[in-house]
Amino acid sequence: MVQWTDAERTAIADIFAKLDYETVGPNCLSRCLIVYPWTQRYFGAFGNLYNAAAIMTNPMVAAHGTVVLHGLDRAMKNMDDIKATYADLSVLHSEKLHVDPDNFRLLADCLTIVIAGQMGNAFTPDVQAAWQKFLAVVVSALCRQYQ
User: Which of 33, 34, 77, 99 is the residue whose CA sits 20 to 30 A from 61?
Assistant: First the structure.
């Protein structure tokens, strides 16, 4: 079980309180699909993903990016048991969707970049440390079924 300090809990809650899910989610997923084009293989049903402009304007990418952020919101609300919170998602992504677990880390990195850009100077080293700890726990929970 992960131990969270009050400062970490506050930093993570503050990030979520300031998030515009409909902007950050699509930007994060779009960035991941553009920077790491091999991740597109899981989104074949999303239509045109042939270039950055197509990805950035794809409504299915935008919608799924928002879904991803709401999924992270669930982890934030259940920080003391993220593994149990994500047990079904881990099974879905490993056994049904066959997602390469490294893609979770790539998406987490893209999310960190987007949030850092949005928060600017408020994304201090302490806030970043709490955020990256949170994402590491989320990624570990999602990868649990693979182990």
Answer: 77
69 within some domain: yes
With a threshold of 0.70, does the pTM exceed it?
Answer: yes
Q: Tokens at residue 140, please?
A: 């570990």
pLDDT tens-digit readout, 18-44: 999 999 999 999 999 999 999 999 898
Q: How many Å apart are CA 77 and CA 89, to the nearest integer?
A: 16
Identify the domain containing residue 23 by its residue range.
6-146
The answer to whether position 135 is within a domain reads yes
In angstroms, what CA-CA distances link 18 with 31, 43, 136? 20, 28, 21
Distance CA 118, CA 98 (A): 32
- Between the two ends of the chain, the Cα-to-Cα distance in Å is 17
C-alpha span between 22 and 146 (Å, rounded): 30
pLDDT tens string 69-110? 999 999 999 999 999 888 888 877 777 777 788 889 999 999
Other Cβ atoms within 10 Å of 26 Cβ, number = 24
